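step 4 of 6: structure.
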Amino acid sequence: MPLLEIKNLTKIFTIGSIFSRTRIVAVDNVNFDINEAEIFTLAGESGCGKTTTAKIILGFEEPTSGEIIYKGRKIDRVHQNEKERRELLREIQAVFQNPFSTFNPLRKVDRYFYETLFNLGIADTREKAEEIIREKLSAVGISFEEFSEKYPSEFSGGQLQRISIARALLTNPSLLVADEPVSMVDASLRMSIVNLFKDLKEQYGVSVLYITHDLTTAYYVSDRIAVMFRGNIVELGPAEKVLMEPKHPYTQLLRESVPEPDPKKKWDIRIKLSETEQAEYLRQGCKFAGRCPKVMDICRKEPPPYFEVDGVQVKCWLYR
Amino acid sequence: MSFIKRYLLPRLITYFLVIWVGITMIFFIPRFLPTDPVQQFINRLVAQGTYMDPKAIEEMTETLKELYGLKGSLWEQYINFWKRFLKGDFGPSYYQFPTPVITLIKQSLPWTAWLLLVTTLLSWIIGNILGGLAGYFSNRRWVKILDSIAMVIRPMPYYILALGLLILLAYIIPIFPIGGGFAIGMQFTFSWENLLILLKHAFLPALSLILIGVFIWFQAMKLVVQSVKSEDYVKYAKMGGIEEKRIVRRYVIRNAMLPQITGLALSLGQIFGGALITEIVFSYPGIGTLLYNAIFTGDYNLLMGVSTLSILLITTSILLIDLLYPLFDPRVRYR
Amino acid sequence: MRTENLKSYYILDIFGKKRVVKAVDDVNISIRENEIYGIAGESGCGKSTLLKALFAAIEPPQRIVGGKVLYRENEKEIDVYSLSEEERRKLRWSFISYVPQGSMSVLNPVVKIKETFKDFIESHTTGKTKEEAYEMAKEHIKELGLPIEILNAYPHQLSGGMRQRVTIALATVLSPKVIIADEPTTALDVVTQRGVIQLLKEIQSSRQNTIILVTHDMGVHANVADRIAIMYAGKIIEEAKTEEIFENPMHPYTKYLIFSLPKFGDKGRRESAPGSPPSLADLPPGCSFHPRCPHAFDRCRKEIPPLKEYLPGHKVACWLVEEGKNAAS
Amino acid sequence: QQLPPGIPRNETFIADNLTGRAANPGNFNIWATWVWNDRGIQNLLLEPLWCVEYATGEIINALAAESPKYNSDFTELTIKLRKGVYWSDGVPFTADDLIYTIELAKNTPGFGYNSQMQQVKEIVKVDDYTVVIKLNAPNSRFHTYFLDRWGALRPLPKHVFEKVEDPLTFTFNPPVGTGPYVLHSYDPGGYWTLWQRREDWDRTPTGMLYGMPQPKYVLFITYGGPEKQVLAMAQHQLDAADLTLEALKAVLNRVKTARAWRKNFPWTVNIDPCVTGLHFNTAKEPFNNPEVRWALVFAIDIVEYAANAFDGAVTLSPIHIPLTTAYYNWYFTKLEDWLKNFEIDLGNGEKFKPYDPEAGFRLAEYARKRGYPVPDNPELIKRIFGPGWWKYAPDVAAKLLEKNGFYRDEQGRWHLPNGELWKITITTGTNPAHPGYRNAFAAAQAWKKFGIDVTVQTTDAAATLDQRGEFEVSTDWPAAEPWGGHPDLFRVLEPFHSKYIRPIGENAPWGNYARWSNSEMDRIIDEIQKTAWGDTKKLIELGVEGLKLLVKEMPTIPTFNYPGVIAWDEHYWTNYPGAENMYAQPYHHWPNFKYMLPFLKPTGRK
Amino acid sequence: MQVLKDLLRDTRFRFGFIVFLVLAGLSILSFFSPYNPYLWNQVPRDLPPHWPHILGTNSMGQDIFWKLTFAVRNSLVMSLIAGLVSRVIAMIIGMIAGYKGGTADRILMFLSDSFLVIPLFIIIVLIATMVKARLSLPMLGLLLGVFGWAWDARVIRSQVLSLRERDFTYTALLSGSKALAIVFKEYLPFLIPLIFATLIGNMSWAIGMEITLAILGVSNLDIPTLGTMLQWSINYQALLLGYWWWVLTPVITSIFLFIALYLISVSISEYLDPRMRIQRIGQA
Ligand SMILES: Nc1ncnc2c1ncn2[C@@H]1O[C@H](COP(=O)(O)OP(=O)(O)OP(=O)(O)O)[C@@H](O)[C@H]1O
Ligand SMILES: Nc1ncnc2c1ncn2[C@@H]1O[C@H](COP(=O)(O)OP(=O)(O)OP(=O)(O)O)[C@@H](O)[C@H]1O
Ligand SMILES: [Mg+2]
Ligand SMILES: [Mg+2]
């Protein structure tokens, strides 16, 4: 049984007031699941619905339709009572993109640690709490002394991101949702974070939903990867396969666009850039049709279904 | 079409709702005052020496109530008000019975409107320009001087400021008339001479209003500009070597104007209140003293008339500015 | 263009407390014509500060504390900081221009893009009518292959990538000799980033001008830069040709920077440099990298290593190299 | 430079508009709207049948040719009209106009005097100048509705009104009158009204009685608050104004040619027919007790009181009518001995004579100390500052209160018999220039000093609250004012009749918001009602009885005459009536103004 | 204390603060006044400043200096009440509207719109007229407070709205914090400068409004405040009679009070500006 199952998840945003509606299907019938002790990557370019998916899983947004099944139980955020809410908080925790805005700049960082522990009923005394905090901090390589009684601005981004992970770990969660956890962290520190996920998975069996547009780190850490484009998952499969032999033209584009730190590999072909985000969201058939080098007639008319190719699911008419 | 449906309609609905709430408040509040218009009327008569024996007074009270339409429950009066209002009628003034309120307002409104619209706009424009420049060149000497002047003038009790101006410019140096809206016996035909007379009479009231107004906007604008100044696009423009004049005009002021536009709409609504002391000090024939008397004599109809007008004015100006706002700020779209 | 012992500090006075941030300290670089010069380094090491100093557009609290910035224009070297404010203003955009870090908020939100173009054009050329300015902007946009409609759009109507490209177009509209680009792609996703870099490269190859490109993404550097300088805590610690740096990084920090990056097809474990960068207001004595350097030895803790040329065109500031202890790892 | 071309300043008299800005300046139909008649309508445009002249204590026959004549049971009244009077549009004034006026008033609800005219049964036109009015019931004072004292039913032009559809909404513009002036122009904003002397001024009662009014033009103008009037006077832009005492001082300081009723302190007009003071609500505890009321009188040091109120510039009056020259002679002289011997019972056989014949002198002494010139002649001092008042006797007050169960605590604060702290609220209006306002603060000061917690409630609804009895102490007139030019006290006493007493919450009659009544008083009132207007000897006798009763009961406290604060500027016009030249009352806003204008003399200044 | 020390380095704040202290000192002096401010005829009338009546006496026979001490105290207390009441309302409404959003937001913002639109001055004068006699100082403060919140509620709402989108809101949620805790612990620190700056602004407004109401004669003239002091002096023509000390005392005092409040507010809001604050925290 997978740890988390996402079934037919759809999220529609309506912009405007009661009198007008522009609908954006930010998440369009998305299905995937995350196994225990697995790093699952959700990749895709800016504005493709990654964060929205994460927020729904965390309960910060309500899905328009679809189900989220956690450990076999359907999660219903709306009708959840306080106890269930706390239980879930202990199970699923998150790390955000910008370490500097993860914590309130006007509050000391350690406050969040104590709050997490006390609010969720993990510790009842300060001593106990401190003990847990020490343990988790050491897991991310930060000492309690350099951590306590400090404001976020007193840390570097890398430190903060690790602290943020430590906070998420306080509850011993089974699933960590990490929304672009390294995109704001210096390249020189990036690996220390990514390695942490690897360690968490290996040592504690924590599953991670790793959201990123950085395919190299995705490749480095993840077991499976789903590539999203304008609300749809266009390709889903083992990371090695998807990234080394991308099937969907969009995945191919993504893969090619990663600048490799190797002066010998330089880009040569010019690429076509996206039209406006909204236009692509509102497109009828395949949403990538507007930019796809291999576009066919059918692509413009009908959205493609998933085709299973070589253990990878591809949403592209090419594989019909 | 979608502009109407999406943008205009919701705003119109709020517009009418707000008008309704405002008018309803104005309708009920004075009716809880102990001032009774009938009593006030009779009191004035007897206090001035008219001989009425006690019985006559009692009879008169009844007649007046009948005539004023003050019989019936509050609710009935409220409904009646709306019926009349929708026909554009506010009923008779009690204080000046039986003259219709509309007539009274028509006589006074042009004076208030012209004096206050002009001064509000002028002080808005001058204040914003000065404030804009002061905010941008905040280290210059003249800015510091202007700043200090603003700090002293702004908190002056308006009455004292107005009276001081009057004493200075109408008594000690008698260049302006000590009151009124125009010369005695003046015929209202157009001539340059008459216009000059009108301007001369309006000068002191306008000056007093503008002095305070300019510095209010000055201070507000200066603060806004100082924060706009640290926006990236201004810094970028400076780095890009764009001429200073251009930066001030097109980058700083244009952006800093946005909150000031909203401020203008709001301040337009307080015009009648603002007119009050001006009119008292300068005996300017506007709607302010009319309102003042209405309050003190329990002239509900007149009060309703003036306040309704005021509410209509402010809501309409807010609506208009709301509708025009996207022209100034492209980020707000007619969605 | 080159600098001589350039020092640019932030001198802060917060409610009476003095604080000095040595954001650029003793930097000597010289940039050649027609090259793409990359500057890499982690956040807060002083890259933007250096660029601003090079661009001669500093505002308090930033100050030039020492050194010179020299431009070579028409075979003449001019010391920009000896020029008057107005002369400097004139140099900008016509000789040197700037692509700012983060394009989110650098465009005036209340006017159309073409107006911004007009402002830049009119401020630096004389006798151009409004129409001519628009025409020039149009030409330029067309030349760069950007959609012409953007001229009539407001900044908020454009996507981040498009906006970044607009700032590039804006920076190149007057064909300056030098373009300074401060992390033009940092906030963008890979596909968009590629578009932006593509644009920069095209401009450089067609106009034959110089680009100074700052980014901490070594991948981008590898892709476009001719030479790369690595900055750490306000100092240049290594400078060499791109290939040279990637093949033979000498400074331990550079090594971390390059070898920590994961690559496709290689899942081997990679480590970041331990610890975190120092505060520029309070630098450790000696080599500022020594607290994080696994190979640090006594001299590193006491003396600041100078930037020296060890191989042709390859300069490093490291005592390890000096003392030949080049611990290859 | 204020006047329009063609209107020379030295032929114009500029007076201040007492009631301020006219809200509806284009309407001259004062029969329907009744307000703003002091901007020249009652004082220049219209003539009444009779008019009171209280400076001389006489009644002027204006449009009437002689005094009213009643039949023996007061059901018929014969009025003879003056001959040769013309309306300003050239139509002769006749009995028809008067008859039409009365009938219109009677038949138009909402019209002025509508309710009073219901008493009229029938009007008989004897000839063009004689009218007989038959009444439904006897009324010996019916003619007083036509007796102008600041309002009366003044005849209106039949030939104008009969053409009008709705006399209530008719604006009567341009107005037509029998007075010596006609409208020249007015400010649609309501700040001024300019009048012009009629060419045929000799065909008006004024002209016939006193000759040609001197100013060719009269301008009524509202400059604004007192400070504005001072400035205007300082620029000789205002000839006469009704001011506050302080503004008057400022005028006298600044304008060499300006003066007031008296050339020296106390400056104020003391012949106004109103007396000011305090009004107890006798329907409320503890003010229902005359001993408490008297105690509060003893708690007042009238000299300090007058100083606090008007810096001492007042004429004290211990009785419920103003001590104008006329009333001083008619009544005070007859009461003085009684007052001196009047005693109050303090219990335990203790008696106290409250009258203080020295009060006027003490007040004069205060003025002297303030540095004001005060005459030495005792008789003059009595006339100027008042003959006397009630003694300042806090100890007596304490005794009276203690007798009624009140007590003082250690801090000297008075408690009610039930133990509560005694708090008094004095209700008054909001006009700081008004003597009521000044009385309120002066009384509050006196009683605070005595140890009572007093607050002054200034409210625009004061009159309404008072009328409904929703007050404890108010500053209404201690009694309705007398006619001023006639010894009849019917007007003063009638409101105290028990048939008008109303419970709290309902409207009490003006002149008795105190809600006090007394069977003896009822008898006196009925008696006066049956006494003819001309029988002044009997009227005075009855009036004295009534006044004695009011003193004994003290339902309201009279303090001083209404101190009229009038200033005028002799820059362009002289011979304005003053204390030493008392040929007329000095108010420009009164109807009598027109009768004084013929006596003015131009100074010839340009 | 440290905060005060920092602030005192700012000349503007120093000036404002000293003036404010002097005025606060004056109001404390009122407790030691030898005269009852409600009694007249205590000292000779109309005297220009001289020892021991350092600000002279008025036409009612009161010592102006000692009267001023009460006036300053009362005006300050009244404005503080007005400021606090309206801050509390603005905060509650702004925070609920901003955090809850949806219908609650719409209703509350409609309410605040209505308050912005009604002719405030007219209504305040009306109500003041209605309750004037019973208009005690706290009542007046309350009245002004009830009408002074609408705009600031909007500002607070928009701040909360933008704070709600910041990641730390989610961090707090993930830490198990409830709405109330989030609003108070997370958002309040950001709002404090705003609240403080607007409090001072609102106090100025209330003092000004009180003066206007007094001049119109619709406040309780018995209570010594800056407004009623001015009103009495105007009524008694102090200006034209040359009793300049009587008019100028309340005028100059109120100008100084306004300037002090203004400078303090500008300086504090600059000091509390989160951007500056973070810098300071960073260096600590
Ligand atoms: N609250 C919202 N209301 C309306 N539209 C929204 C809302 N949140 C997100 N969207 C839209 O939904 C789409 C997907 O947004 P989302 O934040 O999930 O993208 P993302 O993949 O996380 O992008 P990024 O890489 O920039 O973080 C975008 O077009 C965005 O504009
Ligand atoms: N206006 C300023 N006032 C004070 N200190 C500043 C200012 N701007 C930058 N600094 C400090 O100077 C140092 C260098 O900043 P700079 O912006 O040059 O770094 P950077 O290398 O461009 O970093 P990033 O990659 O984040 O853009 C940093 O420590 C920063 O805190
Ligand atoms: Mg996202
Ligand atoms: Mg930077």
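step 5 of 6: annotate
 - The longest strand of chain D covers residues 120-127.
 - Chain D touches chain B through 69 residues (CB under 8 Å).
step 6 of 6: archive
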